[in-house]
Design goal:
alpha+beta, 6-stranded antiparallel sheet, 19 strands, globular
Length: 282
């Protein structure tokens, strides 16, 4: 790190990248994730001050953050105090134990008018669906979706399709997603990925409802018709177009990554990812 960066000049924006504690530990072991190193390379090219942190690194009283950065002199990842950033890029979420601190931190960022590079809160999937279906040009492309209120909602959905996805309205990282399938010989199979793939069978809709309520606890969840995806060697494939605004304020496609799930997994969150061209050409 050069002397100009060390002095934190106002001309150089400070970017704070919020990640999970596990990823912070990977830096501590000098074995950071390759995807995070791309950000470091970008900050070097643009002469932008950047550090990584998780929510427990934030000191609200001192208005400082114990950030992780690469010490060029010692050629290793180290920690030191940084001021609150000018820009924040959220790449990880806070665990339940830090929810209160997270809320206070968000308020402080808003007070300081810190610019977010991406959405700082989880979307409500039901709210998103309700907004999208207001547009006539989008409605034909939306899977049938309803919010769960009673077992009849689940029964009505299975009368439309034999395969549905059940998702927490504010879930993330695929942790609160279940795929349920109505079996030809009666009964239901449901599966989810939580550290590993879980697959179970129940004999009745009543039993399935009981399992769903236990899984989601008090969280609201939606029922959604499964999209007919590409399948390769018992793995599902999805394409997710990523959009962002360019320098002129116009929305553009940043890329269309293609993700292949783990074998038999109902989600592609913990998956192999390819660029659009590489996947369809190779």
């Amino acid at each position: 790190m050069n002397n100009q960066k060390k002095n934190f000049p106002s001309l150089n924006p400070i970017v704070g990248v919020m990640i999970s504690p596990n990823k912070i530990n990977s830096f501590k072991k000098q074995q950071p994730y390759e995807k995070l190193l791309v950000l470091k390379h970008a900050s070097d090219k643009t002469n932008v001050i950047m550090f990584y942190f998780c929510i427990k690194d934030v000191n609200l009283k001192r208005k400082k953050i114990l950030g992780t950065y690469f010490n060029e002199d010692h050629q290793m990842w180290q920690k030191k105090e940084f001021p609150f950033p000018n820009i924040i890029y959220k790449r990880g979420i806070a665990t339940g134990a830090y929810k209160d601190i997270t809320l206070l931190f968000k308020r402080e960022l808003k007070k300081r008018k810190v610019k977010p590079l991406n959405y700082q809160f989880r979307f409500d999937k039901w709210e998103v669906y309700e907004n999208l279906k207001q547009y006539d040009e989008l409605t034909p492309h939306l899977p049938v979706t309803t919010i769960y209120k009673t077992p009849k909602d689940l029964l009505d959905m299975f009368n439309i399709t034999d395969k549905i996805y059940i998702k927490a309205c504010r879930g993330g990282q695929g942790k609160q997603v279940i795929r349920a399938i109505k079996l030809p010989d009666g009964g239901y199979e449901y599966s989810y990925f939580l550290n590993k793939l879980h697959i179970y069978r129940v004999k009745s809709l009543t039993k399935l409802v009981k399992e769903l309520l236990a899984f989601f606890r008090n969280d609201k969840f939606i029922l959604q018709q499964a999209i007919d995806l590409i399948n390769i060697d018992q793995s599902i494939v999805d394409l997710r177009a990523e959009v962002q605004k360019n320098g002129q304020g116009h929305i553009t496609f940043a890329g269309i990554p293609v993700r292949i799930s783990q074998r038999n997994s109902p989600i592609t969150t913990h998956a192999t990812s390819y660029t659009f061209n590489h996947f369809f050409e190779k």
